[in-house]
């Protein structure tokens, strides 16, 4: 049995090939509409969304409360120039303080911009508050953490493309004296801080790694990170862009067991996916270092985005989405484990933030092939770049019935993928 794509989808693929540069090697599924946990393509085919656009639509596609708030803002004042005050921005910053306890917030649009902002805040804090020697402030990260695709965030990656240098100096998972800090290995961080605390001003990590394949650190790791950073007067920056806002079963993933970062970066689901909204939360002791004209962007903090974010936060709390993620996540993994799926090594995750770790030894078993076949069977998912992990991250608003239906589709695909022929989309360049 083989699987190909329709003429309508092929036409979209052709337009991509002729006129679109870059991107993330999308599967040949041309989506035109979505509601809650269901999406439809150009042919009207229906899919269950088990990806949530990488944690963007935690509150489901087109949540009516969020849509209504954003539309109202568009109709009343779509753009407030950054030269003037925006009451909705002030309201959003205040609401974030009420929920999370950080008294200052700087809003941006994309996650990468927010990470850039956190780096700028940390470095200025280091020079003015800690007295770090000019030009030496180092932002330490951990291996395989993903913080974005801008030049500065790409500089933090463990593996750098040889084509985009020069990268931003003094950032990354190697300390100034050459200590490589592996994600989840607390001894690496301890060694780096013992050697280079005079230069390291911040340690930034994902509490659970997203793009690396929902990698969960050892029990107690985050709490030890927070303690070590405090001991050495190093800022702990939690990148909660993918893991935050209910996705892992907590409003903030890094705080599940009592840790508290100095700076928290939010994005993706902050607006329920309706408008690009991101930002950095922190307390005045750090955030007040930011001066006028130092951090900002033209389209940040516009009324539609702020209105959507305010509504999304209300949905998160009033619909108890963190608790719901925990309950549904356990249901999903228990059901998948009951199938005794072939080619599966383990499950990794928390809440509704899960990966299936795949045994790729058989030649026809790759994450990309499985994701492609899932799409043909009516379920949207994605694999990691190296193909050994399949991400399963449905909206937190998905129904139990849809969740179990999705589990059945996953089980069917794992059973049949080894014996299936050509699957359109199984290679990045194939349709």
Automatic annotation (TrEMBL):
GO CC, any one term: cytoplasm
E.C. designation(s): 2.6.1.13
Top-tier EC class: transferase
Pfam families linked: Aminotran_3
Reaction(s) the record says it catalyses: a 2-oxocarboxylate + L-ornithine = L-glutamate 5-semialdehyde + an L-alpha-amino acid
A biological process from GO: L-arginine catabolic process to L-glutamate
Entry superkingdom: Eukaryota
Family matches, as InterPro entries: Aminotrans_3 (IPR005814), Aminotrans_3_PPA_site (IPR049704), Class-III_PLP-dep_AT (IPR050103), Orn_aminotrans (IPR010164), PyrdxlP-dep_Trfase (IPR015424), PyrdxlP-dep_Trfase_major (IPR015421), PyrdxlP-dep_Trfase_small (IPR015422)
GO molecular function: identical protein binding; ornithine aminotransferase activity; pyridoxal phosphate binding
Pathway entry: Amino-acid biosynthesis; L-proline biosynthesis; L-glutamate 5-semialdehyde from L-ornithine: step 1/1
Keywords, comma-separated and alphabetical: Aminotransferase, Pyridoxal phosphate, Transferase
Names of required cofactors: pyridoxal 5'-phosphate
Sequence similarity: Belongs to the class-III pyridoxal-phosphate-dependent aminotransferase family.
Protein name, as recorded: Ornithine aminotransferase
Organism: Knufia peltigerae
